[in-house]
């Protein structure tokens, strides 16, 4: 974790916070542990989310299932908007304040999109034109969503713009799902332990690693004839989970 979080380790050790507790930890519990800064709480919770995704989604997640999830989130938001408009208490044509549950649905949609982007943003998908274009489209639509909810206009106007984005996102997801004949779409990830031997201090491991916006550490390539290259098991697109049994 970031250096700014090292100060809290003793508090976690003193209270004997185990793995099960950590996976369910809340903002209030973090505050009780002395993590009072919201930014630091978010860093910890985001790291926990990554562990949850690794623990629960490893064997089932693939590009197809993530596309289905994003499609479902987009359709849920569309249904939420149409349901609000059928309500006898709908005031969207005069109100300019978006309801909290509406904003929550938008956040959920962006979260589902980020999970899909985490796959599209790495090899082998990043090198395939069709998937690269899809990735750029999803990013653009997410940026539109975040811009729309901050615009000063009536709720009704905001909803219309978001409905358009949701329908476009659904079309993108349908396109990915239609590629079901491509084995990459249904390929899930798996964990593998790689041991590098005969490492000379002067040459290092020979891996190029990129940290993504959501905290993943992805290999982008290896140096020719380096320990990483010689083992023949490390490839661009692989994610680094642990180094010397320490989760990163």
From TrEMBL:
Pfam families recorded: CRIC_ras_sig, PDZ, SAM_1
Lineage top rank: taxon: Eukaryota
Segments forming domain SAM: 1-54
Domain PDZ: residue ranges: 193-248
Every CRIC domain range: 62-156
Family: Belongs to the CNKSR family.
Protein name (record): Connector enhancer of kinase suppressor of ras 2-like
The encoding gene: LOC112542495
């Amino acid at each position: 974790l970031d250096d700014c979080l090292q100060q809290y380790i003793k508090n976690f050790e003193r209270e004997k916070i185990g793995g099960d507790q950590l996976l369910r930890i809340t903002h209030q519990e973090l505050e009780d542990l002395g993590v009072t800064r919201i930014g630091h709480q978010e860093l910890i919770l985001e790291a926990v989310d990554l562990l949850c995704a690794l623990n629960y989604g490893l064997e089932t997640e693939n590009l197809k299932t993530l596309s289905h999830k994003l499609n479902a989130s987009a359709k849920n938001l569309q249904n939420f908007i149409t349901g609000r408009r059928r309500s006898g208490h709908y005031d969207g044509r005069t109100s300019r304040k978006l309801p909290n549950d509406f904003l929550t649905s938008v956040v959920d949609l962006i979260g589902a999109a980020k999970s899909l982007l985490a796959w599209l943003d790495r090899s082998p998908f990043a090198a395939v034109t069709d998937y690269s274009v899809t990735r750029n489209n999803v990013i653009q639509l997410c940026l539109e969503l975040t811009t729309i909810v901050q615009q000063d206009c009536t709720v009704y106007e905001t909803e219309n713009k978001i409905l358009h984005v949701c329908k476009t996102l659904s079309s993108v997801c349908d396109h990915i799902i239609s590629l079901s004949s491509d084995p990459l779409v249904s390929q899930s990830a798996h964990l593998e332990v790689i041991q590098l031997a005969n490492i000379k201090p002067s040459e290092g491991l020979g891996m190029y690693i990129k940290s993504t916006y959501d905290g993943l550490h992805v290999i982008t390539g290896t140096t020719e004839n380096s320990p990483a290259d010689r083992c023949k098991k490390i490839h661009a697109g692989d994610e680094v989970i642990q180094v010397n049994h320490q989760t990163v």
